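Record type: ASSEMBLY
Status: queued
Input:
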Amino acid sequence: MKAAVIHEHGDLDVLRVEDIEEPTPGAGEVVLKVLCAGLNHLDIWVRRGRSGGKLQKPYVLGSDVVGTVEQVGENVTSPKVGDQVVLNPGLSCGRCEFCRRGEQSTCVSFGIMGLSRAGTFAERVAAPADNCYPRPDHMNDPQAGAFALVYVTAWRMLMTRAQLQPGETVLIHGIGGGAALASLQFAKLVGAEVFVTSSDDDKLSRAKELGADHTRNYHQDDIASWIKQETAGRGVDVAVDAVGAATWPLDFTCVRKGGRIVLCGVTTGANAESDLRALYWNQLTILGSTMGSTEDFRQMLRAMTVNRLVPVIDKVFPLAQVRDAMERLETGRQFGKIALRIAP
Ligand SMILES: [Zn+2]
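Status: finished
Output:
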């Protein structure tokens, strides 16, 4: 079968599409015929070798997928052959104290599809049956294949970790990225007032169409003074950060006293200065967030289905053009999710 793989870590040139052996389902697993798969920043980290994952060559990238169940392994009662499913990309042991508490994303051996086992950028992928959920029928293939990872991440950040309330104010940096757009959609669903930033005026006007209440170009304006001005000196209740080093210091000046900063990614780097004086004097809460628990995933999927929310799709590429797709993500030109069409 065809798959997008790497044989070594490195830049875009290490990525290739080639024929590899088809997967077989282990006990408790299914094999999906992949319809569409979605790109995430995680794929870039895995390719570059910064994610700590073990590399079995050739290594298949990709975490998100919609597909049709083609084979089921031993002890699988659900899903059944022929079902169309999406995957919760988070992998957990199911046995440790954290899994038993229902906190699967703090599992001692937590992993992700495409990071700790072969990923979804292939004509077929094997995955645990427990990670399969019926595909939301209000989404087309690229939408269904590209939302899971960032939407469960955004759900956990806003709902479980930051416990966002109706009427609260939220600042979301770098609108255009998948996690930022998902956060915008969920913040509006809750009834929050949302501030977004970008360096691209076109992305800001599109964010406004999706419900952003206030938008600002960070190349033209000082974001800290803008927030101060818009909130009458108070600051926002919650800062949502998937950007990392470039925006982290700003979070400390933009949240109100007693406010929350929630971080789920570091696309601009992992090392940044923190204003410790603001942290204690303003009694801030810093929250890290990774992926989501089984319950986070179930709630997120239910919320998207009931409210007929769909991810914004930036562009769909055929598997053969996975390099172009990843280059687009890597240069930050996208607005929304980039998907790969794998089966017609
Ligand atoms: Zn566990």
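Annotation: Residues 148-161 form the longest helix (14 residues).
Annotation: The chain is about 30% helix and 25% strand.
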